[in-house]
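SAMPLE LOG
Freezer: B-3
Tube label: C17
Construct: single chain, 424 aa
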Amino acid sequence: MNNKINLKEAISIGIGGMVGGGIFAVLGLAVSLAKGGTPVAFLFAGVIALLTAYSYAKLSKKFPEKGGTVRFVHQQYGNGIFAGGINNLLWISYIVMLALYASAFGSYAAELFTITGKKLLDVRICQTAIIIVALVINYLSVSLVSRIESVAVIIKLFILIAFIAIGFYGFSLHPEHLQQLKPSNWEAPFLLISGGMVIFVAYEGFELIANSISDLKNREQNTEKAYFGAVGFVVVLYVLIAIVTVGSLTFDKIADAKDYVLAQAAAPTLGQIGFTIITITALISTFSAINATILGSGRVNYDIAEDQELPKYFCRKFLGKPIGFLITAILSIVLVNLFNLQSISTAGSAGFLLIFGLVNYIGFKKHQELKSKKSIHLIASILCFVAFCTLIVQQYQTNKMGVIIAVSIILFCFIMEWSYKSIT
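STRUCTURE (predicted):
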C-alpha cells in the first residue's frame, strides 16, 4: 500500500499534465482566432475533454494497466497495423507537444533576458537548450523529474489563481475593459469552434491519469472523481484566465504579444513586476512540462516497441534509460526549429482529437463490459471527429502548412507501421 496514490494525488497528476506549457503556448493563438469569444472556445474544448474523460474513466477502471491509451487500443484492436499506427501517433503527438512547450519556453525566455541581441535567434537557442537540459535531467534521475513536477504544480497554480484574482480586481477599477468580451466582439461560430480545437492541446494531459489508475486507492470509487476533478478544475481555470486576458488587453496588444500574452496581461494591473512574475511562472511550467513529456513519451515509445509495433531497436538502453528518450528529444528539437507555433499546435490538436475520438469509440463498443452509458461515449466520439474535421478545414484556409504537417504525421504513423509489419 506504500506505493498507492490517493484521490488528491491522482487529481494532481491530471492537473499537472494539463496546466503545463499548453496554456502559456496557445492562449495568444486562441485569442487571435476567437477574439472576444476566447472563453467560449476554451469552454467548448473543455466540454469535449470532459466527455472524453468519461470514456477514459470507465476504461481505466476496467483495464487498470500501466500504458493507458496504448492498452485501451490493444483491448479493442489487438496488435495489428491499425492499433500500431494509432499508438505510433500517440508517441509522435507527445513529440509535437514537447515542441509546443519548448516553443513557449523560448518565447517567454526571450522576453526576460537577451543572449545574442537578436530575438528570433534567442528564442531558438532557448527552446533548443531547454530540451537538452530536460533530457540530461531525465537521464540523470527520474525521481528528480517527479520532484520538479510536484513543486512546479504548486507554484504555477498559486500564481495563476492569483493572476485571476488580481485580474478581476482590475475589472472593478476599469470596467470598460470588459467591453471586448461582448458577443459583438466574438468571431463567427465556426471560428469559435476551430479556435477551441487549435488550443485543444491545452487539455490533453488528463490522459496521464490512466497510467496511475492501477496504483489508485479505492479505485472503484475514485477513478471517475480523479478524471472529472482534474478536468473540471482546469476547464474553470482556463475560462477564467481567458476572461482576464481578453478583458485586460486590446486585441492589437494581444496580437503583438501573442507568444507571451499571459505575461503581458499581468502588466496593466501589476506593471513590470507582474510581467516578470508571470514570465518566470511560464518558464517553470513549460520546463516541468518538457521534463514530464520526455519521460512519458520515452516510456510510451518503449511500451510500443515491446508490443512489437516498433522495431526492437527502441527497446535498447542508452546510458541506462530507453533510447526513446534521446530519439524523442532530437525529433522535437527538429520540429520546434522548423515550424511555427500555430502549425505545431494544429498538428498536436489534430493528433489528440483523433486518438481521443477513437478511445471514445472503444468505450462505445465496450459499453456493456464497462457498464457505462453508450450515448455519452458515442456523443464524445462524434464530437472529437467533427472537431478534427473542423480544425482541418478551417486551418487549411489560413495555415496550410499546419494541416500538411498534421496529415503527414498521421499518414506517416500508419505507413511506418505497415512497413514494419511487412518486413517482420
